Amino acid sequence: MSWHDSYCQHVLWPDYRFASQHLAEHFLDAMTAHVRTVARLPDRVVQTHQREIEGLEHALIALHDTPLPSYNADVPDLYFMFNRKLEAEVGEQAVGFLRLGLSRNDLDMTVYKMRARRFLLQLAASLLDLRSAVLQQAEAHVETILVAYTHHQPGQPTTVAHYLAAVDNTLSREFERMTEAYRRLNRCPLGAAALAGSSHPLDRSYTAQQLGFDGPVDNTYDAVASSDWQVELVGVAQNGALGLSRFVCDLIQWSSQGLFALPDSLVQGSSIMPQKRNPVALEHARTKLSRAVGSAQSILYSSHNIPYGDLNDFGPDIQGAFQALSVQLGGGLALLNACVGEGTFVRDTLEAMARATDTTATELADELVRQAGLSFPQAHKLSAALVEKMTNEGRRLQDATPADMLVLGGPQLSDAVLKEALEPHAFVRRRRGLGGPAPEVVSEHLVAARERLEHSRGWLEHQQHHLTRAQTQLRTPRKDLV
Amino acid sequence: MSWHDSYCQHVLWPDYRFASQHLAEHFLDAMTAHVRTVARLPDRVVQTHQREIEGLEHALIALHDTPLPSYNADVPDLYFMFNRKLEAEVGEQAVGFLRLGLSRNDLDMTVYKMRARRFLLQLAASLLDLRSAVLQQAEAHVETILVAYTHHQPGQPTTVAHYLAAVDNTLSREFERMTEAYRRLNRCPLGAAALAGSSHPLDRSYTAQQLGFDGPVDNTYDAVASSDWQVELVGVAQNGALGLSRFVCDLIQWSSQGLFALPDSLVQGSSIMPQKRNPVALEHARTKLSRAVGSAQSILYSSHNIPYGDLNDFGPDIQGAFQALSVQLGGGLALLNACVGEGTFVRDTLEAMARATDTTATELADELVRQAGLSFPQAHKLSAALVEKMTNEGRRLQDATPADMLVLGGPQLSDAVLKEALEPHAFVRRRRGLGGPAPEVVSEHLVAARERLEHSRGWLEHQQHHLTRAQTQLRTPRKDLV
Amino acid sequence: MSWHDSYCQHVLWPDYRFASQHLAEHFLDAMTAHVRTVARLPDRVVQTHQREIEGLEHALIALHDTPLPSYNADVPDLYFMFNRKLEAEVGEQAVGFLRLGLSRNDLDMTVYKMRARRFLLQLAASLLDLRSAVLQQAEAHVETILVAYTHHQPGQPTTVAHYLAAVDNTLSREFERMTEAYRRLNRCPLGAAALAGSSHPLDRSYTAQQLGFDGPVDNTYDAVASSDWQVELVGVAQNGALGLSRFVCDLIQWSSQGLFALPDSLVQGSSIMPQKRNPVALEHARTKLSRAVGSAQSILYSSHNIPYGDLNDFGPDIQGAFQALSVQLGGGLALLNACVGEGTFVRDTLEAMARATDTTATELADELVRQAGLSFPQAHKLSAALVEKMTNEGRRLQDATPADMLVLGGPQLSDAVLKEALEPHAFVRRRRGLGGPAPEVVSEHLVAARERLEHSRGWLEHQQHHLTRAQTQLRTPRKDLV
Amino acid sequence: MSWHDSYCQHVLWPDYRFASQHLAEHFLDAMTAHVRTVARLPDRVVQTHQREIEGLEHALIALHDTPLPSYNADVPDLYFMFNRKLEAEVGEQAVGFLRLGLSRNDLDMTVYKMRARRFLLQLAASLLDLRSAVLQQAEAHVETILVAYTHHQPGQPTTVAHYLAAVDNTLSREFERMTEAYRRLNRCPLGAAALAGSSHPLDRSYTAQQLGFDGPVDNTYDAVASSDWQVELVGVAQNGALGLSRFVCDLIQWSSQGLFALPDSLVQGSSIMPQKRNPVALEHARTKLSRAVGSAQSILYSSHNIPYGDLNDFGPDIQGAFQALSVQLGGGLALLNACVGEGTFVRDTLEAMARATDTTATELADELVRQAGLSFPQAHKLSAALVEKMTNEGRRLQDATPADMLVLGGPQLSDAVLKEALEPHAFVRRRRGLGGPAPEVVSEHLVAARERLEHSRGWLEHQQHHLTRAQTQLRTPRKDLV
Questions:
Q1: What's the distance, Cα to Cα, between the start and end of chain D in Å?
Q2: Which pLDDT tens digit goes with each residue over C126-176?
Q3: Cα B149 to Cα B45: distance, rounded to the nearest angstrom
Q4: In chain D, which residues have their Cβ closer than 8 Å to the Cβ of A309?
């Protein structure tokens, strides 16, 4: 039997290459787990061939250390290549037990889920690294004033820490989404066979447990036909990438303005412009996030308007898209982590910028309400008038005097009260309600955020350890297991 | 002050129309809650104006029953229109208390979240209706054979119930995602003011509780700047729409083949082709799902490469996209619910089709392993040879005899064993492992699925009741509250 | 016959409302054209009923001025509503001639294309307005220095005109794409009937010509089944929206920095921050472009993985998506047109900024090659060293002296040569190669760009006039036509 | 100078690998063309170093045959690696002439466009192959009846040729779009330097001509900053992929029904289901098209909400997305070409299916109008009644007799007239209007389609030849050129 050249070139060869590189170990683990479950079948034939089955299992484990041949025209895919190798080792009869109640449908889907688990845990680990870097910067800048923009204009003073704590909140919610997606993902399809399970009474819970899943998918059709876990991963990735694209947007802007400085190891010059020092690491982070969102669309289209059943669309054909997503989103996270971890918020320039703006005008209005009993709309108008007066006179708002206020028909304020009302640090200090930027409020929030981060790390380590343990057991001959 | 014609025509007017129609009640509730929180400020001015504040609150509540004027060139938006109306009722001084520590930033975001809550609960309700319809069909077809296709070719027999139980599994996971998104969404931004909170010590927890939120967003910058909850809703919607697009694909296919019949009220004829009876309700369901996935992209683009701060992109400008998503996805769910609820799986045709196919060949192979000790690969080859022989002879696989098997060099099987191995119902009955299609297994699964549905309904009713109660309290003058 | 409530609510009613509002006139024109073609059939029956057919045609024309009833449960859609009204006017027998060789398939597709033509011409008109505004600003700023950024850092001086001429180039290519899409779109499906044409020998070329099409689609299956013209419109819209999103990005940035100023009629203040003056018209333009790109995805999904044949997916069900696209992209263009047309490039600030940067360093290197025979890499290094020296000494690059150069081991340059090499205007003046920013080069380019614009306007007016004339002829009883 | 590990791992290394593999020859050609243009500068320094420049040019040409080193930590990218190699060959002074008026900005963009040209021409070639295969099948099936479906139900008879001629129409329009995109793409950025051109009077037209471009981009800012040509390629690819997804949808459906048969070399069996013969080549074609549409989104996102200027987003960072697009769309085209070219439309089954349906009912109605003077609505009703009667009696519509018609109150038709009206071939033969399915009409259309194909092939060969010639000239030392 030989396949069409185009089919080889565009399907069989690239799929084989991909599977060799990215899926082989998962295939072997899943096959080993299946064989161990087959070995427990109450069937007479099975019982009388325990030795052959054990041999098969050993051969499977040994394949982990065997170099994979490049594509061989005789076999359509990696699965059949493994079959051939096993037959050569233990004979066709023994390999027959591997295929009992097993279909590429459930085997493939199991392998894809195993790979997706790892992808998700890697992303989660990168996300935790970034959260850690964000919190570290936050902790160092609880008192560093940042002029927050709204609608692309200076809005109000807050602190770098307050801003970064907000970023950490979004990343923490993103982590939650990852854990929830992981929980739904981590159910095992094996034993579903083609779609209807098998008439051999395979213990699917045992198979699932061996592979580190939380249990089997509890409907065999669902096990091979559903792709919602893929679409959910896309949702998680979209949220991560889009949220971070906004953070990157600010970091780039601050780099342009000299408020955030990257080290030399993260900038590049120009081949023609001698003065250049481009914050390219941030730019590349942005584009990787864009490509992550974009490439994820492949996965959406691949689950659109196709039957609900076993198909290639969301099987082998979409693995490359997950790879692309992993490279892009993972790369974006890594670059961003480097930039946040090794960049510097330039305190003096940030402070100078704050003092140069009118952004404390809100507090002046608030103070006019408290000190002079004006209604807020009246106070707002008066404060706006003062801003305008100072601008026209080429003076900074912070340099306004009680006399300026009187000229505008405003109330008599003491010099101290006015100065304080217009001072950025005071602006921040006074905002100490729940979630506000006042240093003591943010400090307390950051302590809780650190605890939350540790809790997240605990979850991640637990999952990683769980998978590692399962893997070790599967790669150790049963007789060597304690 | 007058705005540019283009600005009026493309921004102010349509936004006002939209807000009047879809957001007014949420604005009033949020403003009422804020005023009640302001009334509790320890501030002297506030304490001495309790009567005015109470009047303001009453005026706010009364606005629920006041017809909204159409757009008025004097005021840029609904919020300022309400301000004007309130000023006319209770005076500018009193209205000043509304604006204390309040920004359109936090107010808008609160309103958008209130609207999103409702959108999400409506979708959840539609999803539960569909799950109920799916389960009802499943319960009626536990023994109805369905030939399941893989790769667009007949694969194996299963039952309609087994297939629908798998669909219900996906819908149930979708419901879970909705509840998780709801939990993250249901935190209140109010009190965040422009972004840094207020120097007036507003009790943000009290505000949040009044509005039926689970609590305030615990960082004021996060409260006004984050759009991850929107992207998460998109993820949920994508998953719902794409998953259902696959179910619809099958229903349409089955309609084409006469396996699933829609009632007259859901089909349309042709103006030119006299024989036509088109299953258009399913076709429209498909297109609404396509448009839901597509229109959701608006929301993704609106959070891409913009600063992390308060902006219009994910504020007023994206509300129409949520509306479109609601119309399309909600419409798709409603049509699908009608089709599943009132369509008929045509038992006889389904059975006849099953008997006409070769899809029990797998079980024959399994049986050859058990009865004759063949390895599965050998049994697979023999079964395939029988399929080929019967096809070449123009006979159905089910009519194969022990003699046919012998001719192919196969083992001697009794007539009864062979018949049973080739019979679709037996195929299904024998697959009684975890998650398999055997009637008793599926029946048990369906009982659990019903319980799961009731549990989901309980969650939904709790949330709906919680919001209704909060709303009632907000629309009742405080003195009338028990 | 009565349809299911859900079907009415989610399909029939909204479709009827939409068709009444947006499609009615196109339906009537297309039906009139068809009836006139039927009247020419050589058929005996047709020939003997010319008077009835003429009456039918008059009744059709009169319907343009008849108010449309709201949805009537008796008829599924606007087409059948028109049929009912015509029957009441001229009798069932006469209306029969309308339905000869006519299907809703070809009629609908014709109507959708007529609507798409208008949509495309409106977009083209808006684009021309924007091009005109861009060129006007360019013409006024041929000598206004703009520091062009690359990688978010100051790169080189150019002029506002040079930048805007580049923008005009992109808009001009976009216009070309529109005309090409229009040419492919403007073929008439009528006469294709259900898909196979009719056994009545209808003159499809005559029908097409009446409706202002360039001719009929030359395969009747293609006429009703193809949606590539829709996907092409999406491509055109994506390109317009994304290209403009980049221009808006710069305008917003320049607004933030005071380099580009919007008039009061295009900015908004804040309800809480007294100092605010937000360039919201630009922000809304951005979000409309984002929504245009996003909503266009609906149209892509609606042509994905569906059969190639007549379907609702790319028919009635996608009209709302085109409407959304029209509103968003059209709105974005209009806002942008207002901002460019009425905004101000702030010459002095732009110049001051240019003088404050190091962006002439490239020219210094070029001059060192010419004057001193250094290789470019050597000159680049020397220029970079000078930049660093000046920065460290807190001096502007422009204030460098021949002595500074000598200190760095560079060649002796005259003061005049050095000053000129570091002066932004000189930088620009010297770049007078093809496409460069030198004022005389850009001025010449702008003259050509104006001519190109006039040529585009000529095309547009020709198409508009052509459609108007066809429409007039169709709405005038034949006997009144000259 | 050393870069951050993350920057190396996620940017520099993969970019270098990619450039080595996919861009090296374009870099060398572009650099050679630039050096030849530099050699023509009237500058004294240039004139006195002609020999060095010639040596540089030779060294550049020789690099085509030099193996590329793997990534070297000393140089950030392929461009600088080439610089190093050239310096080693001809000295730093000589290499300096390469860098005169050259920036990576214009060089990169030129290289990306050269690569995009090739990508587009390859796609165009694949498209022509597919058109050829489609026309060949069409020519063989001018009389083969195909029941065309509308709304997923049997609609009317047409022929395989009529259907395929429609497909060819769409592919031909797609080809047009490619040629138009190519024309806009094929303008040369070189000489734009960083963005403002150079003060050295480089002859940009000469550079463009050497590289096979139609001319230089006529604004240097446009040359380096615009990405509309990328978005246009996405539009072209979307249209190709979505249009073909619909064709594939039909081919798969016909495969399921036995109407279209793939050869063994394009199907795969099942590891568990012995009877399986899956048309996987078509399924993989579908998924490649889905991934093409999806992955193209990366390119859209990369041009969204970024400044209009030189950036990495649409430069190096998007080349991988074009690669993915090329692999997916090219692969989909190749698979589809194989399936169409080597698959078989199963004439007998197609005919049998046509005779089993009611799809000639339209023609019966048409005939009733002509023969009996009924209005079309009356004829439609009568035809529908006959369909219903025959269905209820379990008889095929084609077996209806004049008596059946009379029973329904219809007119007296002769047996011959009735038979002919209900016969699928007659149905098709009678539809001989412009674009109809009648064999002589389609045959004529196919002749024109062949001519159109040849014309397209002529265009393609011209472009390919033009690029090859330019390449040859660039890789031949000037003194060896005739």
A1: 46
A2: 999 999 999 999 999 999 999 999 999 999 999 999 999 999 999 999 999
A3: 74
A4: none
% of residues, chain A, pLDDT over 70: 99
Q: Which residues of chain D neighbour B256 with C-beta distances below 8 Å?
A: 149, 152-153
Residues in chain C with CB shorter than 8 Å from the CB of A264 are none
**Which residues on chain C are in Cβ contact (under 8 Å) with A383?**
274-275
Global pTM exceeds 0.95 = yes
Taking CA–CA distances from C272, the nearest residue in chain B reads B103
Q: Which residues of D touch B (CB under 8 A)?
A: 149-156, 252-253, 255-256, 269-280, 282-283, 301, 304-306, 357-359, 361-362, 364-365, 380-381, 383-384, 387, 397
Q: What is the DSSP letter of A79?
A: H
Measure CB to CB from residue B283 to each of D152, D154, D155 and give the nearest one. D152
CB–CB contact A435 B218 (8 Å): yes
Which of C153, C271, C272 lies nearest to residue A276, judging by beta carbons?
Answer: C153
Question: Residue B268's closest chain D neighbor by CA?
Answer: D151
Nearest C-alpha neighbor of D218 from the set C158, C445, C148: C445
The one-letter amino acid code at B246 reads R
Which of D278, D280, D362 lies closest to B273 in CB terms? D362
Residue D400: strand, helix, or coil:
coil
Q: What's the gap in Å between the CA of C279 and the closest CA on chain A?
A: 7
ipTM: 0.96
Please name which of A361, A352, A349 lies closest in space to residue A155, comparing C-alpha atoms.
A361
Whole-number Å distance between alpha carbons of C390 and C388: 5
Residues of chain D falling short of pLDDT 50 = none
C-alpha torsion sign, points B417, B422, B425, B431 = positive
- pLDDT tens sequence across C186-243: 999 999 999 999 999 999 999 999 999 999 999 999 999 999 999 999 999 999 999 9
Q: What is the rounded distance in angstroms from the CA atom of residue A366 to the CA atom of residue C254?
A: 31
Cβ neighbours of B295 in C, within 8 Å: 294-295, 297-298, 321, 324
- Check C11 against B311: CB less than 8 A apart: no
In SS3 terms, chain B reads as CCCCHHHHHHHHHHHHHHHHHHCHHHHHHHHHHHHHHHHCCCCHHHHHCHHHHHHHHHHHHHHCCCCCCCCCCCCCCHHHHHHHHHHHHHCHHHHHHHCCCCCHHHHHHHHHHHHHHHHHHHHHHHHHHHHHHHHHHHHHCCCCEEEEEECCEEEEEEEHHHHHHHHHHHHHHHHHHHHHHHHHHCCECCCCCCCCCCCCCCCHHHHHHHCCCCCECCCHHHHHHCCHHHHHHHHHHHHHHHHHHHHHHHHHHHHHCCCEECCHHHCECCCCCCCCCECHHHHHHHHHHHHHHHHHHHHHHHCCCCCCCCCCCCCHHHHHHHHHHHHHHHHHHHHHHHHHHHCEECHHHHHHHHHHCCCCHHHHHHHHHHHHCCCHHHHHHHHHHHHHHHHHCCCCHHHCCHHHHHHCCCCCCCHHHHHHHCCHHHHHHHCCCCCCCCHHHHHHHHHHHHHHHHHHHHHHHHHHHHHHHHHHHHCCCHHHCC
Query: Of A90, A96, A109, which Cα lies nearest the Cα of A310?
Result: A109
pLDDT tens column, A407-442: 999 999 999 999 999 999 999 999 999 999 999 999
Identify from B195, B214, B358 which residue to disrupt to test chain A contact, counting A C-beta atoms within 10 A and taking the largest count: B195
d(CA C480, CA D413): 42
Q: How many residues does chain B have?
A: 482
Taking CA–CA distances from A284, the nearest residue in chain C reads C151
**Could B4 and C194 be called an inter-chain contact, meaning their C-beta atoms sit closer than 8 Å?**
no
Mean pLDDT, chain C, as a whole number? Answer: 95
